[in-house]
Structure formats: C-alpha cells, structure tokens
Amino acid sequence: MNEDTLNLEVRKYLKQVGITSQREIEHAVLKAVEAGKLNGSEAIDVKMTLIAPSIGVNHCIEGKIALE
Predict the structure, then answer these.
(1) CA distances from 30 to 6, 14, 19, 42, 65 (A)
(2) Do residues 65 and 43 touch, judged by C-beta distance below 8 A?
(3) Cα separation of 50 and 34, whole Å?
(4) 1, 7, 11, 59: least buried by Cβ within 10 Å?
(5) Residue 45: which region, alpha, beta or left (left: phi > 0; alpha: psi -120 to 50)?
(6) Using alpha carbons only, what angle is made at residue 59 by residues 10 and 68, rounded to the nearest 5 degrees?
(7) What is the pLDDT of residue 65?
(8) What does the pLDDT look like over 22-38, one tens digit per residue?
C-alpha cells in the first residue's frame, strides 16, 4: 500500500462528497423556503453516514446547520 496514494484518493473523494453535499443541502433549503416549509431563520438537523463495507466502516456524524 502506498500511503501517499491513499491520502490523495481519500482527499479527492472527500472533496467530491463535500461539494456535492453542499450543493444538495443548499438546493433543498432554497426549495423548502420557497415552498413555505422553512421560514429561513431556523436551524436544520443534518446527518451524514460514511459506509465502507469492505473495511467495516459505518460512521455517522450528526449536526445542525443554522440558516440565519
């Protein structure tokens, strides 16, 4: 195993996850505000689960995103 390659590949994957996740969250929030489901001043609960079955990883990160 090449640790430098592993580090680079993990970073590339996490960058893709971060960019895609941000886009999806922002789109969903804007749509919910337009539909009146959110007023735009609350905080929303979020949960991200990382699953890598071949190495036994199942890790959940929970948090809140403030809209104002």
Answers:
(1) 36, 24, 17, 13, 13
(2) yes
(3) 30
(4) 1
(5) beta
(6) 90
(7) 98
(8) 999 999 999 999 999 99
